[in-house]
């Protein structure tokens, strides 16, 4: 069938298998062009199918020649209905990895559950014995707690007071004012349960107990800080409390892994268009101004450039450079004074009429389409595409 983007709010209901495969190939080519990284050889990526997790898996495989196991939650296709992009991304990744002689297998299911943790551990035991790197890159609006069975929902709300600022509907380019009511304590607690560090720590403890972590194993989870204009809804909001918790959990995990000399890190990454970030109010406007500024300065990066740099210049160097809170910073170019000053200036004047000029709205839209396999050069979108092809080797 001819597959076209079908937008509904912050998501696209369709995904293009050939386009998703092109996206993965482009990322692989980028990593290969940067040369080999002397890094991990056996890697588990939790949240491996899209965004930073997919880029981490690609960097592990094609930068470090690593065997990879990927865990994710994606929908398979049915006749006439496409899969979610992460399904096609993974199938394409596995094909490329296998062609390159690299081990790659995947597990599709709820990473928050005991069942998926056990299944993953069994697969590691059977095929790899142990892993030396665990990337934790989940982004989810909900978590079913494995011990209580309670379904927790995260929220994206300010804390303490109502927050009003500009936002953009990136489909139409319409800039408007948005007001978000403050969170109550329950909202905060739920967001910490979903996006905080508890599940990461559960994964690492279960893996250690099962003996599937190599001596000196490293684990990395991803966080975000960002500018003052998004602070109320991001870093000082409900999601920020979850990130505080995630960052604190890194120190707990390092303690828990002391007997095998394991290390847990949080890497603070750059703001990028992903399925997760598109749903956060205010952030898309900030990203479109940031993209414009960083592209002008020759500093722009996507997920793959970020992850390649994380591995090559941070994780696998003699000593991992950390900030005063013990975090890895790969948001260093985003947070540069000249970049932030420029974005702050643009923020003050941004409106519907000038956004396509002072902001990179086109770049935002293109990146959003790319997430679903649309908008790639070299893909014939008028051609018949088979939504049922491209099947990952789900275990
Ligand atoms: P994404 O939406 O592209 O990826 C999320 C991944 O988690 C996918 O592989 C998805 O299948 C998987 N997943 C979701 N729920 C799951 C579940 N219940 N079980 C198994 N897998 C599940 O998100 P993105 O943006 O790559 O986010 C990853 C991490 O990076 C998050 O912690 C996010 O906060 C962080 N981050 C994101 C930034 C951004 O601007 N996008 C900036 C800095 C950090
Ligand atoms: Na991810």
TrEMBL record:
Site note Plays an important role in discriminating NADH against NADPH, residues: 74
Subunit architecture: Monomer.
Residues the record marks as active site: 234
UniProt pathway: Lipid metabolism; fatty acid biosynthesis
Keyword terms: Fatty acid biosynthesis, Fatty acid metabolism, Lipid biosynthesis, Lipid metabolism, NAD, Oxidoreductase
Catalytic activity: a 2,3-saturated acyl-[ACP] + NAD(+) = a (2E)-enoyl-[ACP] + NADH + H(+); a 2,3-saturated acyl-CoA + NAD(+) = a (2E)-enoyl-CoA + NADH + H(+)
EC class (word): oxidoreductase
Sites where the protein binds NAD(+): 47-52, 73-74, 110-111, 138-139, 243, 272-274
Residues that bind substrate: 224
Cross-referenced NCBIfam families: EnoyACPredFabV, PRK13656.1
Function of the molecule: Involved in the final reduction of the elongation cycle of fatty acid synthesis (FAS II). Catalyzes the reduction of a carbon-carbon double bond in an enoyl moiety that is covalently linked to an acyl carrier protein (ACP).
Listed PANTHER family: ENOYL-[ACYL-CARRIER-PROTEIN] REDUCTASE [NADH]
One Gene Ontology biological process: fatty acid biosynthetic process
Domain Trans-2-enoyl-CoA reductase catalytic: 81-316
Pfam families reported in the protein's UniProt record: Eno-Rase_FAD_bd (PF07055), Eno-Rase_NADH_b (PF12242), Enoyl_reductase (PF12241)
Enzyme Commission identifier(s): 1.3.1.9
Keyword check for NAD: yes
An example Gene Ontology molecular-function term: trans-2-enoyl-CoA reductase (NADH) activity
Protein name, per record: Enoyl-[acyl-carrier-protein] reductase [NADH]
Domain Trans-2-enoyl-CoA reductase-like NAD(P)H binding residues, every copy: 2-79
InterPro entries listed in its UniProt record: Eno_Rdtase_FAD-bd_dom (IPR024906), Enoyl-CoA_Rdtase_cat_dom (IPR024910), FabV-like_NADH_b (IPR050048), Trans-2-enoyl-CoA_reductase (IPR010758)
Domain Enoyl reductase FAD binding: start-end pairs: 322-384
Family: Belongs to the TER reductase family.
